[in-house]
Amino acid sequence: MHYWTWLSAAGIAVLVFLITLTPAHDAFGVLYTLVIVLIAGRCSIKTLRIVAIGCLVLECIAFFIVHDGALFNTGVARLALSITATLIVTIIAERDKRARDTLERQARILAHADRIKTLGQIGIAIAHEVNQPLSAIATFAQSGTRWLHRPAPDLKEALYCLDQIDANTRRAAAIIRNVQDMTRGEQVERRTILDLRKVIQETITLLKNTDMSNTIEIHKISGGKLPFIHGNKTEIQQLIINLLMNASEAVTQAHIPAPVISVSAQVISEKGAFVQIQIKDNGSGFQNAPTDSYFEPFRTTKKSGMGMGLSICQTIVEAHGGTIRAENTPPSGAMVTVTLPLAEPTP
Ligand code: ADP
Q: Ligand 1: distance of its center to the CA of 199 in Å?
């Protein structure tokens, strides 16, 4: 308890004791309730009881010092009044303290449960995000082995596969680090000025050799230089990969004979300087629900889905000061639009 609270409580107790030494003012013993109120909730129940007993003793001492003979009977009534008041306030303060302690205990239990839930979410998010680089590592390891097992081993191709394994391993490690930071709610600091066009192209290259790149045509960004953003490269890559994987799964599930997924990016100047990235596919679109609801965690319509992809995308985009929205594009297909602020000043 605070030093000043104790000092004030002691001061009030002494003052009340001195007042009650005056015969006409012995009913002022009720003012000991102020001492109880002052320390209530700031000390343990044991301390509260000790202080209450101290107040009662002071009331009795003052009473016996002041009263004798004829005054005794009227004084007893006043003493009983102030003792009753002190006891009632002590009981109320004790109950209040117990209620506060219970609430604090419950808050601690809840905080602990929250930490366990957060740990679960970290695990699920990592499992979701690391899946892609891990399958890329497996694919490159297999094709590297094939290049080496040829009658005339192609070392150049094998080295390329090793490079890709190295890059994807680093990416998986960076993803784990970022997901941990994101789930802890920490501001991600590892940000640099990024050339968005380069990041998008590198991300599409990362998907080379995967099922997606074999079956789907990805329209790369054309035209001049795209603007620069201030961001975390691994997170922006995760964002694009998640959206591309969703688009790929949508066209695969809908058995589209000529699947098309396009990625486009353009500067929009309303409300300041922003860049808009759009990922569009010709699958069957979002099913029977407001598209906003698909950004909630664990919202999935896929048998083996986790429902984390869009929720992670939203976290990434918002951490970069941007917005993300999804919509269906009649007659078929879906489009996700990400708007990110441009880096200031543009290099
Ligand atoms: P998951 O892919 O594990 O289901 P997501 O959060 O990435 O988790 O996606 C949530 C849901 O949003 C998907 O199950 C799917 O129903 C819907 N969805 C996402 N992207 C698309 C898309 N391009 N076309 C149609 N539906 C989509």
A: 23
Residues 298-330: tens digit of each pLDDT: 888 988 888 888 988 998 899 899 999 999 998
Residue whose CA is at the smallest distance from ligand 1 atom 16: 301
Residues 43, 46, 48, 50, Cα dihedral to 10°: -130
Alpha-carbon distances of 4 from 35, 93, 166, rounded to whole Å? 13, 20, 62
Q: Give pTM, 2 decimals.
A: 0.61
* Distance of CA 48 from the midpoint of ligand 1 (Å): 59
Backbone angles phi, psi at 87, to 5 degrees: -65, -45
CA 294 to ligand 1 center in whole angstroms: 7
Q: Is the CB of 341 under 6 A from ligand 1?
A: no
How far is C-alpha 16 from the geometric centre of its chain's CA atoms? 52
Tokens, residue 256: 């589209």
pLDDT band, residue 169 (cuts 50/70/90): very high
Q: Which of 266, 283, 284 is nearest to 275 (CA)?
A: 266
Say how many C-beta atoms besides its own lie within 10 A of residue 263's C-beta.
Answer: 20
Query: Which residue, judged by its Cα, is nearest atom 18 of ligand 1?
Result: 286
Output the CA 31–ligand 1 centroid distance in Å: 68
CB 250 near ligand 1, within 6 Å: yes
Render pLDDT for 18-62 as a digit per residue (tens, 0 to 9): 888 877 666 788 889 999 998 887 888 899 999 999 999 998 888
Nearest to 55 by CA among 113, 10, 100: 10
What string of DSSP letters covers 237-292? HHHHHHHHHHHHHHHHHTT-SS-EEEEEEEEE-TTSSEEEEEEEE-S--S-SS-GG
Residue 39: partners with Cβ closer than 8 Å, 6 or more residues away: 1, 5, 6, 9, 47, 48, 51
Burial of 292 (0-12, 13-18, 19+ CB in 10 A): exposed
